[in-house]
Amino acid sequence: MSTLATSTSATRASVEATLRGKRRDVGGAVFGALMLSALLLSLVILLVLILTTLQDAWPVLSTRGADFLRSNTSQIDTRTGVWQGLVGSFILIAFVAVVALPLGIAAAVYLQEYARDTRLNRLLITNIRNLAGVPSVVYGILGLVVFVQALRSVTGPDVYGRSYLAGGLTLSVLVMPIVILITMEALRAVPNGIREAAYGVGATRWEVVRSHVLPYAAPGVLTGAILSLARAFGETAPLLLVGAVTGYLSTPTGRTPLEILQGQYTALPTQIYAWAKLSGEGWHAATAAAIVVLLVAILVVNALAIVLRNRYDRRW
Amino acid sequence: MVTTRTEVTLGSLRGDPGRRRKEAVIRTALIGAAGLSLAISLAIVLALAGEAFLFISKVELSSLWSGTWSPRRGEFDIPTLVIGTLMVATIAMAIAGPLGLGAAMYLSEYASPKVRRRLKPIIETLASIPSVVLGYFALQVINPQIVQNLMGATSTFTIMAAGIGVGILTIPLVASVAEDAMHAVPSALREAAYGIGAKRRTVTIRVVFPAAISGIVAGLILGFSRAVGETMVVALAAGATGQAPRRYNPLEPGQTMTGAIASLAIGSDSVKTSDSGGVNPFTALYFVGLLLFMITFGLNMASERFVRRVRRNY
User: Fold this and answer.
1) Are residues B156 and B264 in the same domain?
2) For residue A230, which residues of chain B lie inside 8 Å, CB to CB?
3) A141, B197: Cβ pair inside 8 Å?
4) Fewer CB in 10 Å around end: N or C, chain B?
5) Is A28 in contact with B199 (Cβ distance < 8 A)?
6) Could you give the number of structural domains in chain B?
7) Are B188 and B233 in the same domain?
8) Looking at the complex, does the CB of residue A43 fall below 8 Å from at least one CB of chain B?
9) pLDDT in tens, B216-258
């Protein structure tokens, strides 16, 4: 494939050179430059976004530093911090990792390795692809109706259902279709020879999946899983609907893990949203600083995905 | 010489019953996980439809076309939201369409594998930026620097700034779907064109682009659907407050479907007043949500159809 591509481009280059003679293809060069500039403009936007945010955040980050990370939310812009938001976001994505990843990977294994090509199964896959495209705010409404209102007695009787459980379940439902699609893609890339070899020595279907297909697909599955978690980390709109606290939040009173999960919560992105709406130079800087924390967390998670992928990426 | 024959029965081929039982259990568990997705979409439809129906049965139908979106006063003008949404999505596509397609064409047709490996992360990083961050950026940078300075808007919140912010968010989606489509065009088509002396620009525009058109259209539709459903940028930068008159000017603040849902959810409008005609304004959220779901669902179905056409061809 790659040798073909190089030979094609070499052929093209020589054919072009002969046909062109001494004339230069000005129009072609302009067209190419235009395409490149579309890409580079995206880079410029990205850089401007990161640099202006850093610049706005500098007063807070340079003077308060770790104190900003360790402080709870406050009504006063110079004393507020992201500690509760960070803790909340990490609890939420840990919840999503425990609930949505196993379910999503299991569903993908069924659809890719077990299911026959029937009408029902095709409908299932189309349905999942559609679910991945449903706006996140609609998942928020689903969470509001099902997890906050209908299942209030489970998700948090004392806080009107507006708990970690409701938020975590909503994010899990949101992320699951994405996990399924990326996992299916990774499973599809496993060569059939590997499955056939395992069947040939008498392995059952599950044994084939468990000890041959899944290990081979692991880098792809892992990357997909981590990217989905990063998505859940930055998701804001559904959390607003299922009642993430945007104002003052007392420290959790629950002692057992279940009590904490049933308690009220906040998350980093919803805090950013709440602060961004407040006026004043101090809140402006605090918002930018919180965005820097969020972006650092997300970029670290993305980098982790790449490192893990490279580490487990082996060719058979 | 005596040959001993072992009887091979169907039972002995089937293997250990314990092993078979384990297989069956695992299979059932996997089916359950897959079925869950169907349950989720049913739950979405039922939750939305049920509550939306309650809203529609209580509200006066004339208030859905009253000229102002003001749930607190019982005015639920749907055209206000639809017009706002269309303006944001159109501006977004005016940004994401050319930039996304340009980036896709460059990565697929112009960049060498080495350059491609270096430049692709730009798009991937842009895709990982959370929408609330873009909302802040649209409010603090795009609106004052671009919309107010260059276009002469006076408001702190404008549909234009929100549209540009949503457009930036949509670039990676359009670029990756379009690039996949162009990548799937067989090399033989390109080689045939080069063989008769076509220039690279000609090959890109006249051969690859038409061959990948289904996938490109699919990418644009998906991008539009994403722009329609984007919430946080609009909630922060478009001035999506509790009430908004019907407006057609993108340089003024406005309200969209997603923005209306967000501001209803935050609860500033959930106060039931005597003016609202006995309808809890909060329940309008479900009706708007159902509308949003149906629009994006239709768009996604359309794009799926285009993608399938690409697969059939190559």
Assistant:
1) yes
2) 128
3) no
4) N
5) yes
6) 2
7) yes
8) yes
9) 999 999 999 999 999 999 999 987 666 778 888 888 888 899 9
Domain(s) of CATH 1.10.3720.10: residues in chain A? 66-312
Q: Which CATH architecture has domain A66-312?
A: Orthogonal Bundle (1.10)
| Distance (Å) from the alpha carbon of B272 to chain A's nearest alpha carbon | 18
SS3 of chain A:
CHHHHHHHHHHHHHHHHHHHCCCCCHHHHHHHHHHHHHHHHHHHHHHHHHHHHHHHHHHHHHHCCHHHHHCCCCCCCCCCCCHHHHHHHHHHHHHHHHHHHHHHHHHHHHHHHHCCCCHHHHHHHHHHHHHHHCCHHHHHHHHHHHHHHHCHHHHCHHHCCCCHHHHHHHHHHHHHHHHHHHHHHHHHCCCHHHHHHHHHCCCCHHHHHHHHHHHHHHHHHHHHHHHHHHHHHHCCHHHHHCCCCCCCCCCCCCCCHHHHHCCCCCCHHHHHHHHHCCCCHHHHHHHHHHHHHHHHHHHHHHHHHHHHHHHHCCCC
CB-based contact B37 A144, cutoff 8 Å = no
Q: Same structural domain for residues B35 and B82?
A: no
Closest chain A C-alpha to B63 CA, distance in angstroms = 23
B227 and B118 share one domain = yes
Instruction: Examine the domain organization and report whether B168 and B32 are in the same domain.
Output: no
Residues of B in contact with A34 (CB under 8 A): 102
Same domain flag for B76 and B157: yes
Cβ separation of A32 and B200 shorter than 8 Å?
yes
Q: Decide if pLDDT at A235 tops 80.
A: yes
Residue to mutate among A141, A210, A227, with most B CBs inside 10 A, is A141
pLDDT digits (tens, 9 = 90+) for A192-204: 999 999 999 988 8
